[in-house]
Amino acid sequence: MSNVFFYEPFYDLDRFIETLSGATQAQKGAARQQSSGEGVVRSYRPRLDLHENAEKNLVTASFEFPGVPKERIEIDVHNGKLTVSADIKQSVDIDEGGYAIRERRFGKYSRTLQLPQGVQDDEIKASMDNGVLTITFPRTTPDLAPKRVSIA
Question: Which of 31, 35, 105, 107 qualifies as a cystine partner to 42, CB 3.0-4.6 A?
Fold first, then answer.
């Protein structure tokens, strides 16, 4: 069976360009806030590791959500797509003017994966440990797995 997951090359390219440009997160955050206005929620993608195990017929997706409690993370399945998201609020009890460096990101984090055809909701399992959300689901369903036909 072919791989149903799609690599997002532009996500890595954007991070690479940001690294080369030498702009700090604080500078980029200030520029974004100035250009987009106050109160605009930015959307970020949590980092992802995806592992397929053909022998166990299992896909494991691990998402980074450092410092986010599991109660703030939402996992939705709709039309064969699994979406993981969290809305991380900026701390309001710290004075804005006192920052020398501000690299932590706040806003909406979201990532969507295409599920293999036929995966049922009850086959998807999720757990969280030390800021890493791990989701597992079958790589293929028995009904849709390729079948070998022998020649008579």
Answer: 107
Choose among 87, 54, 77, 88: nearest CA to 135: 77
* pTM tops 0.85: no
What six digits make up the tokens of 85? 């998201």
Nearest CA to 83 out of 62, 61, 113, 63 is that of 113
> Residues 46, 111, 93, 98: is their CA dihedral positive or negative?
positive
Closest CA to 7 of 54, 53, 45: 45
At 76-112, the pLDDT tens digits run: 999 889 999 998 776 666 666 776 776 666 778 899 9
Closest CA to 124 of 73, 87, 72, 83: 83
134-146 pLDDT, tens digit each: 999 998 776 666 6
Question: In residues, how long is the chain?
Answer: 152
Is 112 in contact with 3 (CB distance < 8 Å)? no
CA distance 112 to 50: 12
Q: What is the CATH number of domain 9-138?
A: 2.60.40.790
